[in-house]
Amino acid sequence: MALIELKGVSKVYDGGQEVRALSEVSFQVAPGEFTAIAGPSGSGKSTLLNIVGTLDAPTAGEVLFEGRPMSGLSENELADFRLRSLGFIFQAFNLIGVLTALENVEYVLVLQGAAQAERRERAREALRRVGLEAEAGRRPDLLSGGQQQRVAVARAIVHHPQVVLADEPTANLDSKTAEALLELMVELNQERGITFLFSSHDERVLSRARRILRIRDGRLQN
Asked: Which CATH superfamily is domain 27-57+72-220 in?
């Protein structure tokens, strides 16, 4: 059974003038895949990831996770699904400025109701995994862009999600930091079996993907 399946997904925004962001997109992602969504800016990559991550709903079509339609879930059920099953790496990092790196990483576990000792240990291990254990007490404004991105990765994996969705994960990174991040993502995929679905037009990223879905003007290309 596919882990993720999209059936005829379309997305139309109507802000006075109709904009069709996605048109009849269908594909499946199997457990353990390391898949990239490739395309130029404005092609629909971010919209597609947001719909897969249930942060946005399709105008038409269906998203299924392990065969279960997401459209049948309430907002609270969708929020719990995201909390338990998904990890997100946003292009803008989306770290909480008043929290330290360690607190940002463990915040997901706080929402899950994990005990303090357990979440602190798991958050430190996640930071160690991304090479930032020494920066655990620093707030985001005291970290470089590359360090902030690695905190975001640690936050995305700390709760052992089934899927990590990453939107242009190397967009704000220099070549050396980007390469290290890619190595980490590949290791997590191979060692933990985490499914990765990420958008990018960075050839460094695409060269590591085992499968590439190409999108242009909201349509998957054959």
From this structure: P-loop containing nucleotide triphosphate hydrolases (3.40.50.300)
